[in-house]
Amino acid sequence: MAEIIVAERAGACYGVGRALNLTLEQADKAAGPVHTLGPLIHNPLVVEDLDARGVRVADCPADAGDGLLIIRAHGTTPEVIADAEARGLTVLDATCPYVKKVHVAAKKLVDAGYDVLVVGEAGHPEVEGILGHAGCARVVGSVADVRALISAGALGKKVGVVVQTTQTLALLQGVVDELLAAAQEVRVVNTICAATQERQQAAAELAAQVDAMVVIGGKNSGNTRRLFEICSEHCGRTHHIESADELDAAWFAGTGKIGITAGASTPQAHIDAVVKRLHALA
């Protein structure tokens, strides 16, 4: 039987746990409709469970109609919150406190006269929220994006940088190195969440020691996809799943050690289910 090892740091982070607890409390006591603005977290299984408890997903305030609208852990723009309040909705802000720190940092840099870059995934709800609070900023998702801005002469002498909380330190370093060669002043606020860094480091260390690796979390979760990429660099037999039902015994044939990690939107119960299933398969 293979040895099954869970990464030292894995699973739901503080911000996700806080948002989920706030939402569950409202599901139990709210007298009227309860909606989340978009999926509360990037985990389809959790969203399905919330729906079963009567918490629906609204793509925008207009979709919610009335009642309570919960701002998800990723945050949103001030304009969206104003729209919700103008429609008479009660707004509960479950934005992760660490994401709010990015909002503040980006706004301060803009107000100080910096050309602000957000290192992150364009279109991601967290990044859209950061842009909304910054007022004027650009998104860069790679070193190539930075080079393109520099080549186009699109950056001034003072450049400020903030980071989507779930990005990698390696990407931030690459962006900064590129900027240092082009700008006179570069001010960096490293807003990568400590939990993200800890999970990525723990996953890399474990993946280098095992024969197969399982990464648990939503396929729509950016931080989980990055964990998968990191683990794949160290372990060729890395698999990304959302639930224990997806596990295939063939993946683990001949393995002595199987590692497990999970994204920041993955509850402990999901990890436990995968461990139990793996014990039966491997």
Please provide a written account of the structure:
The protein is an alpha/beta fold and 282 residues long. It folds into 3 domains: 97 residues, Cobalt-precorrin-4 Transmethylase, domain 1 (3-Layer(aba) Sandwich); 83 residues, Rossmann fold (3-Layer(aba) Sandwich), CATH 3.40.50; 91 residues, 3-Layer(aba) Sandwich (Cobalt-precorrin-4 Transmethylase, domain 1). 44% of the residues lie in helices and 19% in strands. The protein is built from 11 helices and 12 strands. It is flat and about 60 Å long. 46% of the residues are buried.
What is the second-level CATH architecture of the largest domain? 3-Layer(aba) Sandwich
Under CATH at level 1, the class of the largest domain stands as Alpha Beta
Can you count the beta strands? 12
**Helix-and-strand structural type:** alpha/beta
CATH-defined superfamily of the largest domain: 4-hydroxy-3-methylbut-2-enyl diphosphate reductase, catalytic domain
Taking pLDDT < 50 over at least 5 consecutive residues as the criterion, the unreliable ranges are none
* Strand percentage: 15-25%
Report the principal-axis shape. flat
- As laid out across the biggest beta sheet, the strand order is 1-12-10-11
Task: Classify the helix fraction into a percent range.
Answer: 40-55%
N-to-C span: 6 Å
Rg over alpha carbons: 20 Å
- Average pLDDT figure: 96
CATH topology title of the largest domain: Cobalt-precorrin-4 Transmethylase, domain 1
Output the helix-strand order. EHEHEHEHEHEHEHEHEHEHEEH
- Major sheet details: 4 strands, parallel
How many domains?
A: 3
Report the total helices.
11
